[in-house]
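Structural prep section.
Before we set up the soaks we want a predicted structure of the protein with ribulose-5-phosphate in place, mainly to decide which crystallisation condition to try first. Input record follows.
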Amino acid sequence: MIWQSDIIKNLEWGDTISNKAAKQKVAEQIAAKVKDGDVLGVGSGSTSFMAILAIADKIKGEKLNIKAIPTSIEIGMFCSKLGIPLTSLTEASPDWYFDGADEVDPNKNLIKGRGGAMFKEKLLMSCSPVNYIIVDESKLVNKLGSKFPVPIEVFPAAVLHVEEQLKALEADSLVIRPAKGKDGPVITENGNLVLDAKFGNIPFDLEQKIKAITGVIESGLFINYNVEVLVA
Ligand code: 5RP
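Run finished without errors. Recording the tokens verbatim:
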């Protein structure tokens, strides 16, 4: 039976989309890569949203059979709205993955997680043999951490322990990310907090050092991953 619901039908992207024309260009580049039978890992954020719109058009036009593994409730709901069947990592493994980023350095290292979905984003990327990062030029930086803090998902009871350990890793500032639309902090889809950490310097082993802290679920640092970056 099909739900008689307006919620999914009326779903819209909440915020203004910055650099929309450039995002549209990379969205079309991603759609051009879709082949019949693909299982796609789908990232989160506005660029991924625009890519999934372009992919939905291609699916309709060419009558393709595609399944999507979403990295957030939000992107999963947009797939549902667009008629793209969902699957999960316990049923299928992605043929390829695409996602946006907040910062990309010249060595293709990334900061992600403005949307708070970095745990599942990293999981999908780790499971996928091919990964495309789709960005507009505003995301390119010479040095990671220039514009964005490093988001760190933390088990709530561990937050003060994690604070102490991050200070020992020379975090300059640490903020529990506040929610918009609810009082108090952001609670991730996994029930955790997000600590936004600024570091003056991000050495190549910082991702591993952060991950090694008990209570850290994942960070938005992606150092030395197998990614192809598409820039518009
Ligand atoms: C969400 C992310 C996004 O991919 C990143 O924040 C980029 O977002 P946008 O495409 O809206 O600029 O990491 O957790």
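Observations: The pocket of ribulose-5-phosphate is lined by residues 43-47, 99-102, 112-118, 121 (CB under 6 Å).
Flagged for discussion at group meeting.
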